[in-house]
Amino acid sequence: MVRATYACCVTALLVVMCSNCVCSIKGGGSSKRPSRPKRPVKPKTITPTHSPGVLLFRGTRLNLNFTDNEETIYYANNFTYFPDEIFYPWNPRANATILTANIFVDECFNVTVTKNNLNLGEDVGPDGDIHSRVMEQVIQYLCLGQYGKIPNAATMHLGLTLLFPFVVWITSLWEYAVRL
């Protein structure tokens, strides 16, 4: 019983020491000069670094499954000339309707092609330029990846995800204290 009480006291002491309340005690320093008044914080303006449809080139190879062997070889040899990410954020206000993957990918593809002035039109087909065919498949793949990043109810519980390791740690500490 004494060990369990001791473990509870140690756990409570650790929680208090690690909390923000201890760090915000005023006048805890040993400086003899009075502290300077804090400057007012300037309001931060958030400026978007990218506009929707921007292609990002980092030189990483994507795991794409091409239907044609010629396209696979072409992409393997020239993957640095193709984008590996698209900046196309999901806006819940603009997309109030329920989006399917096909609608989202079509919108993302059209915005990306017009934003970057890509010549991917009617000439892209089985007989079209191989670079254009590969570029079309890469952009569709990246847009489909962006569709997977749409927040939903399963990924919105970030607070519980961050709290889980702390709960596991406290539980293991409690079990260790009970064994003593």
Q: Major β-sheet, in short? A: 2 strands, antiparallel
Strand element count: 2
Order of helices and strands: HHEHEHHH
Strand order of the largest sheet: 1-2
Radius of gyration: 27 Å
How many angstroms does the end-to-end distance come to?
A: 10 Å
Shape type: elongated
Identify the CATH architecture of the domain at 54-147: Orthogonal Bundle
Q: SS-based structural class?
A: mainly alpha
Helix content: 40-55%
Beta fraction:
under 5%
Uncertain ranges = 152-164
Q: Give the C-level CATH assignment of the domain at 54-147.
A: Mainly Alpha
Family: Belongs to the prion family.
Signal peptide: 1-24
Region (Disordered): 27-49
Protein name: Prion/Doppel protein beta-ribbon domain-containing protein
Topology (SSEs and partners):
Blueprint: H1 2-18, H2 20-23, E1 54-56, H3 69-78, E2 85-87, H4 101-115, H5 130-147, H6 158-179
Antiparallel strand pairs: 1-2
List keywords for this structure.
elongated; single chain; 2 strands; mainly alpha; about 50% helix; Major Prion Protein; about 180 residues
Describe the fold and architecture.
The chain has 180 residues and is mainly alpha-helical. The model is unreliable at 152-164 (pLDDT under 50). The protein has helices spanning 2-18, 20-23, 69-78, 101-115, 130-147, 158-179, and strands spanning 54-56, 85-87. Strands 1-2 form a two-stranded antiparallel sheet. It has a domain at 54-147: Prion/Doppel protein, beta-ribbon domain (Major Prion Protein). The chain has 6 helices and 2 strands, in the order ααβαβααα. The longest helix is centred in the C-terminal third of the chain and has 22 residues, at 158-179.
